[in-house]
Design a protein that fits this description.
2 copies of one chain form a homodimer.
Chain A: H1 4-21, H2 28-34, H3 39-51, E1 56-58, E2 64-66, H4 76-84, H5 108-124, H6 127-135
Antiparallel strand pairs in A: 1-2
Helix pairs in contact in A: 1-3, 1-4, 1-6, 2-3, 4-5
Chain A binds a DNA duplex (30 and 30 nucleotides) through residues 3-5, 27-29, 38-41, 43-44, 46-47, 50-51, 57-65.
Chain lengths: 144, 144
DNA sequence: ATATTAAAAGACCTTTTGGTCTTTTAATAT
DNA sequence: ATATTAAAAGACCAAAAGGTCTTTTAATAT
């Protein structure tokens, strides 16, 4: 569904948010270990997320990653588009630019509703909502 | 949804099948032009499909690509799996190996039905069924 | 037989994705 | 002040995806 970078970003963000709920500010080493992602790569990805304004960080002792609680919830779609580009999972199944409702490719009629479901999924779910589910013990994040 | 190679393969296969219905055996140049794909790359992909037994070809004058009509219809899933590998669109949205119904990641409940729809889509649709839709004027293939 | 046609084979290249590692900067605690 | 801690910056590398091009092989038509 998503590429590796997006996967690590989503897992990392949700992990940070869960920890924030628990009153903890995790660092790169903890995050990468807990979400089972490559250490340096995860660091680079989190850095990018900070630079893009999705996440906050502080240096030095007691430092780590956290969210600005004043900001609105972060839909997955925002992150995915920031990482994979705006056209992610919005294209035609056959790769045709001209494909649309009036001019459907052979898969269009069946694929369009699926694409719409995906769009809904990433639009409605936010890092915060997923973190709450996780915190409530409903879901796993990793490291079972 | 699919990667480029798969897209070109699907478009090419459907195009060949449509032409076969029309009593024509197209060559690489025609196919690549009509499906709007890179010439040499398309050639290489068709070659692979022939080697994998999904498609037939003949060399020399009057040569080109065609299907063995005795073989059963070719589900898209077969092609996608041959090109992208068996685990295409079967994984967890979060990239977790341990994710399943009993042990769901935060996205699992919502993503699982979407994944199932995709599986149904590629299982039920075949190169032949799509070619028929196209031939009936219901769909576009490309080159509008 | 040979010239022509068209696919097969395979070398090669570029871009993107995924990943590693070292150095620098900034914060905090002593 | 300075030692320590931890993120930021950025150089570097490997694999995969995507794509180009030339040469070889096989079929057909003359």
């Amino acid at each position: 569904m998503f590429n590796k970078e997006t996967e690590y970003a989503l897992r990392g963000l949700v992990y940070v948010r869960v920890q924030q709920i628990l009153g903890h500010k995790p660092g790169i080493i903890e995050i990468a270990t807990e979400i089972d992602a490559p250490l340096f790569y995860t660091g680079k990805i989190l850095q990018r997320l900070v630079k893009m304004g999705f996440l906050m960080s502080s240096k030095g002792k007691g430092g780590g990653f956290y969210f600005d609680l004043l900001k609105p919830d972060l839909p997955l779609k925002t992150i995915v588009e920031a990482i994979e580009g705006g056209k992610a999972y919005s294209g035609c199944g056959f790769g045709l630019k001209q494909c649309n409702d009036d001019n459907p490719c052979p898969l269009h009629e069946q694929y369009a509703p699926i694409r719409a479901s995906i769009d809904k999924l990433v639009t409605l779910n936010t890092v915060q909502s997923l973190a709450l589910n996780y915190k409530n013990g409903e879901d796993i994040l990793l490291k079972l």
